């Protein structure tokens, strides 16, 4: 008689796969939220489920807690990436005041973001588990761009937040910096596939940042300038410093997304 030995990751992976396959067979799509959490009781799960269901009555919500890996799993029948993102905001607001959330909420949808395979679900779970100890934030898992990372340098918090949300939804991994020095330190640490920078940066301006990046021997990525400087001399100076493209504000997010896709595809 053969004995099959599975570890805790395999067990929860297969359990999630069953939920997802059942939901997609019935509704065509399925949203999933994974949240590293302190141990939750059935009453807490029911309260969270009630809030999420009230937020979007069109979705059927199933919640369960994986004790070995300490991950709260929410499965939304019929959930798209957008509706699952909104549901994750509700879940986050519920978990944080009770000090239950212990890392990032990881959001995905199937088959929109990835094919529901065992390897994809295992990678999804690993992303949630490895986020333990990090700040309470919402991140996206999308297999299509799992290897594409973007560093965004801009002193304006609202600009960074807007772009980050849009790129997160597209599946890119986004890192942020509010000044040139922080941006360069993040660049050295992460070596992202693409850098998007404002020219008006504190401490180290955008031109200096681009030149510092271009001097990094092992870097093969690209830099897009996103700035309110619209003069031709600024554009020329940016290209001379090593920028691959130049986008002016006010921002056209569709134009920026197209340029990102073009440059990262070429890379």
Structure explained in plain terms:
There is one protein chain. This protein is an alpha/beta fold and about 270 residues long. The protein has two domains: about 10-145, Ribosomal protein S10 (Alpha-Beta Plaits), CATH 3.30.70; about 145-265, Rossmann fold (3-Layer(aba) Sandwich), CATH 3.40.50. The protein is built from nine helices and ten strands. The strands form two sheets. It has a five-stranded mixed β-sheet with strand order 2-3-1-4-5, with helices on both faces. A five-stranded parallel β-sheet has the order 7-6-8-9-10, sandwiched between helices. The longest helix is centred in the N-terminal third of the chain and has 20 residues, at about 10-25. The protein is elongated. The model is unreliable at about 1-5 (pLDDT under 50). Keywords: DNA-binding, Phosphoprotein, Transcription, Transcription regulation, Two-component regulatory system. Pfam families: Response_reg (PF00072). It comes from Cohnella terricola. InterPro entries: CheY-like_superfamily, Sig_transdc_resp-reg_receiver, WalR-like. GO terms for molecular function: phosphorelay response regulator activity; transcription cis-regulatory region binding.
């Amino acid at each position: 008689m053969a004995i099959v030995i599975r570890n805790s990751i395999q067990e929860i992976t297969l359990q999630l796969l069953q939920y997802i396959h059942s939901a997609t067979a019935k509704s065509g799509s399925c949203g999933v939220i994974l949240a590293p959490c302190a141990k939750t009781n059935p009453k807490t799960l029911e309260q969270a489920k009630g809030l999420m269901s009230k937020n979007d009555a069109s979705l059927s919500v199933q919640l369960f807690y994986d004790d070995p890996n300490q991950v709260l799993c929410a499965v939304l029948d019929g959930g798209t990436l957008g509706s699952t993102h909104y549901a994750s905001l509700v879940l986050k607001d519920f978990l944080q005041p009770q000090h239950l959330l212990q890392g990032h909420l990881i959001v995905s949808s199937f088959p929109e973001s990835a094919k529901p395979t065992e390897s994809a679900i295992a990678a999804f779970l690993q992303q949630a588990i490895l986020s333990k100890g990090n700040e309470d934030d919402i991140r996206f898992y999308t297999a299509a761009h799992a290897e594409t990372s973007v560093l965004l340098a801009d002193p304006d918090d609202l600009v960074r937040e807007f772009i980050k949300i849009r790129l997160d939804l597209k599946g890119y991994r986004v890192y942020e910096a509010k000044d040139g020095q922080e941006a360069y330190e993040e660049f050295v640490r992460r070596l992202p596939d693409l850098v998007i920078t404002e020219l008006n940066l504190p401490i180290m301006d955008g031109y200096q940042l681009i030149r510092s990046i271009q001097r990094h021997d092992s870097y093969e990525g690209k830099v897009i300038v996103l700035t309110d400087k619209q003069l031709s001399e600024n554009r020329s100076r940016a290209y001379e410093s090593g920028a691959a493209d130049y986008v002016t504000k006010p921002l056209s997010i569709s134009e920026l997304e197209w340029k990102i896709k073009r440059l990262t595809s070429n890379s």
